[in-house]
Specification:
alpha+beta, 108 residues, two-stranded antiparallel sheet, elongated
Length: 108
């Protein structure tokens, strides 16, 4: 047993560092703010550009075709007959008498 204890004397003991080597420094630095700003701009610009391109594409290519389809549908006899009937109504409420008067007109 004494021989085993003598072996421990020959082991060199090193001092541990005062600072934990696994500790994470969570302070915000200027470079972190700049990096976040650059990433924000890099993520915003492609999205904005894609929306701009899609808006222009809709205005130039898709919208005229849809308008042509609507104009052709207006010329079809089935849709013309359904547009004849409009209902005009006027409602007046008299607060003192607690009365609601409604006028409706159906042109044929």
């Amino acid at each position: 047993m004494a021989e085993e204890l003598e072996k421990f004397d020959s082991i060199q003991v090193r001092d541990f560092p005062e600072k934990d080597i696994f500790a994470i420094d969570s302070r915000v630095r200027n470079s972190d703010i700049v990096t976040a700003g650059i990433f924000g701009v890099l993520l915003f610009l492609p999205g904005w550009f894609a929306l701009k391109v899609l808006d222009d594409l809709y205005e130039v290519k898709i919208k005229p075709k849809i308008q042509d389809i609507i104009k052709k549908a207006d010329e079809i006899e089935i849709f013309k007959s359904s547009k004849k009937y409009f209902v005009h109504s006027l409602s007046i409420y008299h607060e003192e008498l607690n009365v609601l008067a409604r006028l409706m007109r159906h042109p044929l």
